[in-house]
Structures are given as structure tokens and as C-alpha cells.
Automatic annotation (TrEMBL):
Metabolic or biological pathway, per its Swiss-Prot or TrEMBL entry: Cofactor biosynthesis; FAD biosynthesis; FAD from FMN: step 1/1; Cofactor biosynthesis; FMN biosynthesis; FMN from riboflavin (ATP route): step 1/1
GO BP terms, alphabetized: FAD biosynthetic process; FMN biosynthetic process; riboflavin biosynthetic process
Full protein name: Riboflavin biosynthesis protein
EC number(s) reported in the record: 2.7.1.26, 2.7.7.2
Family: Belongs to the ribF family.
UniProt keyword ATP-binding, yes or no: yes
Function statement: Catalyzes the phosphorylation of riboflavin to FMN followed by the adenylation of FMN to FAD.
Catalysis performed (reactions): riboflavin + ATP = FMN + ADP + H(+); FMN + ATP + H(+) = FAD + diphosphate
SUPFAM superfamilies assigned to the protein according to its UniProt record, in alphabetical order: Nucleotidylyl transferase, Riboflavin kinase-like
Keywords of the record: ATP-binding, FAD, Flavoprotein, FMN, Kinase, Multifunctional enzyme, Nucleotide-binding, Nucleotidyltransferase, Transferase
Domain of life: Bacteria
Pfam family, one: Flavokinase
InterPro entries: FAD_synthase, Riboflavin_kinase, Riboflavin_kinase_bac, Riboflavin_kinase_bac/euk, Riboflavin_kinase_dom_sf, Rossmann-like_a/b/a_fold
Length: 279
């Protein structure tokens, strides 16, 4: 994972910024970043709700430094005060890039026209970025993920959806009765709909093909789990943080009336995943 550049770059060197929430760092966000010059930076306004790319993960998706501002600390500002703050923070600011729907200030009463009136430098407003006539917004991507429509989510993101979790102890049943899995505690990221997914798993910078179950283990102990099975490899000592990259959904979570039936289905899930990676 990339280190935050914002600690390495002097704010005085920044001449252009893009402003927004930027949860997802999706295709439309990347269009904004393209308008920045080589001394550009991203000003991410943190609402506290980002769960596609939680705060500490945004830097991974850009080479520009990301500076975070907490929405609650700035949302009371009048337009002039907001611009004054930006100019204090970035004394050499010449250009601001925002999207067509950008609003700011007290009660969100200032829009792109307000920004142009108040800022004495250049303001670039990016037109609505769409995918097949559907506007790209993080709220739509969240909906796709919640519905398990990973393909659509990835299309809108312009990359594969990735979550990060902490390795935890499982029931110890997998190895004995089914297949070995690495169990994860995922706290900050939005989880896809319960079910089984073709995935890749990153352990200490190494990428493995995998199949991941997430949901309530309705066939065994009923508790909620995120567990990944690495294909064609025995992994014994995964610890710390690991990353799961979602590629496609195989099926919904199911309750089986015997361990045997679940085991057969898990083998089928593994075959589907192996075939995908073989192609
Ligand atoms: C590919 C795969 C698919 C799974 N599908 C289901 C399922 O549909 N229903 C269910 O109750 N558990 C499912 N499980 C979870 C198993 O119940 C779980 O692996 C088992 O309880 C072992 O858990 P443990 O790793 O905590 O020991 C699945 C697990 C894997 C690896
Ligand atoms: N589909 C889009 N087309 C053009 N600009 C966009 C689009 N989505 C977001 N933006 C711009 O990107 C910045 C970040 O917006 P944000 O509200 O965080 O994105 P989202 O709408 O995806 O939640 C804002 O300046 C916003 O106007």
C-alpha cells in the first residue's frame, strides 16, 4: 500500500486542487484528477461515511497527494470563508477542479457558479461522467455492491473492488470438514451481498487466486464470516491485514441440510473459480 504523499509535499508547492468526497476514487473522480497539473493535489472532504475507499486507502489510487478535511469542521463556512481557508492552506493555488454537481458552504448553498464568482483563479467544471448513460456516483456503486453486482460496481469504479481485513480465528471446521479458509474481520469497508465470489487475495504483497464466502454461516454456526479459500495452495500462517479483490459473484448464500451437500457445493464453487482463472 502506498504511503500518504501529503506528508511529503509542501502545501506551498500546490498550484491546483480537485475538491470532493472521493469515496471510491471512481472513473468520474479520475476525470477530475486528469485536469490537475503536476503540482496538483486532492482535497478530500470527509463526511465520515466513506466505505468504498475509507480515508487511509485513497492514496493508493492516485499519485497526487491527498489532503483530508472533516466536513463537520467546514460545513458552517460561508463561501468567502471557504475560499479564504483554501487560499491559506494552499497559498499558491491557481486552479480549482470540481464536478458539475459540486456544492459547498453553509447549507450547501454555493454551487459551481458561486465558486467561479468567489475564486480569483481558474475554475474547471467537469461535465457529468457517465457509463452507458448512467451517471457514475459512489452511491450507485454502493448499491451495486450491496446487490452483489460486482461486475457493474467494477465497471463504474474503473478497477476491481477491494476490501481490507484483519485475519482472525475461524471455527476450525473448514480444514476438517470442508476446505481451509482464512477468516477475516472487515470493519471499514462496505461488504458485498452475502454469497460466494471469485476473488483474488493479497497476502503480504503476494496475489493469490481465491474464492471467498461472506455471510452468515447458516449451515454451521450461523455466525457472520468473511472467509477466503486460496486456490491450489496451502497457506498456513497468514496474519495481520490481507486484501480481497472482488471479480464476480458465483451465487447467493445458502442453507444446506447436510455438511456433505455444502461440501459438494463448495467444491463446485472452487471449480467455477478455477475455470475462470484458467481462461
Ligand atoms: C467457497 C465457500 C462457500 C461457502 N458457502 C456457504 C454457504 O452457502 N452456506 C453456509 O452456511 N456456509 C458456506 N460456507 C462457509 C462454511 O460453512 C465454512 O467454511 C465452514 O463453516 C468453516 O468455517 P471456518 O473456516 O470458520 O472453520 C462456504 C465456504 C466457502 C469456502
Ligand atoms: N459523475 C460525475 N461526473 C462529473 N463529476 C463528478 C461525478 N461524480 C462526482 N463528481 C465530482 O467529483 C467530486 C467528488 O464528488 P463526490 O460527491 O465525492 O462523488 P460522488 O457523487 O461519486 O459521491 C465533486 O467535485 C463532484 O462534483
Amino acid at each position: 500500500m502506498k504511503k500518504s504523499y501529503s506528508t511529503l509535499v509542501n502545501k506551498k508547492d500546490i498550484t491546483s486542487i480537485a475538491i470532493g468526497g472521493f469515496d471510491g476514487m471512481h472513473i468520474a473522480h479520475q476525470q477530475l484528477f486528469k485536469q490537475l497539473d503536476k503540482n496538483g493535489a486532492i482535497v478530500a472532504i470527509e463526511s465520515g461515511y466513506s466505505n468504498l475507499t475509507p480515508k487511509s486507502f485513497r492514496q493508493e489510487y492516485t499519485n497526487l497527494p491527498v489532503y483530508y478535511y472533516v466536513l463537520d469542521n467546514i460545513k458552517h463556512l460561508e463561501g468567502e470563508e471557504f475560499i479564504k481557508l483554501l487560499k491559506e492552506e494552499f497559498p499558491n493555488l491557481k486552479k480549482i477542479v470540481v464536478g458539475f454537481d459540486f456544492c459547498f458552504g453553509k447549507n450547501r448553498k454555493y454551487n459551481t457558479t458561486g465558486l467561479k464568482n468567489l475564486f480569483d483563479g481558474e475554475v474547471v467544471v467537469v461535465d457529468e461522467v457517465c457509463n452507458n448513460k448512467l451517471a457514475i456516483h459512489s452511491r450507485f456503486i454502493r448499491d451495486f455492491i450491496k446487490q452483489g453486482d460486482i461486475k457493474k460496481a467494477n465497471e463504474f469504479l474503473g478497477k476491481e473492488y477491494k476490501i481490507v481485513g484483519q485475519v482472525i480465528k475461524g471455527q476450525g471446521l473448514g480444514k476438517k470438514s470442508f476446505v481451509p479458509t482464512i477468516n477475516l474481520l472487515v470493519e471499514e469497508f462496505l461488504l458485498p451481498k452475502e454469497g460466494v465470489y471469485i476473488t483474488k487475495t493479497i497476502i503480504k504483497d503476494e496475489i493469490f487466486n481465491s474464492v471467498t464466502f461472506l455471510g452468515h454461516r447458516v449451515t454451521t454456526d450461523g455466525s457472520f464470516a468473511v472467509e477466503t479459500h486460496i486456490l491450489n495452495k496451502n497457506i498456513h500462517n497468514a496474519i495481520g491485514k490481507i486484501q480481497i479483490i472482488f471479480i464476480d459473484k458465483i451465487r447467493d448464500n445458502e442453507k444446506f441440510n447436510s455438511f456433505e451437500k455444502l461440501k459438494n457445493q463448495i467444491n463446485e464453487d472452487i471449480n467455477i473459480s478455477l475455470k475462470y482463472f484458467d481462461k
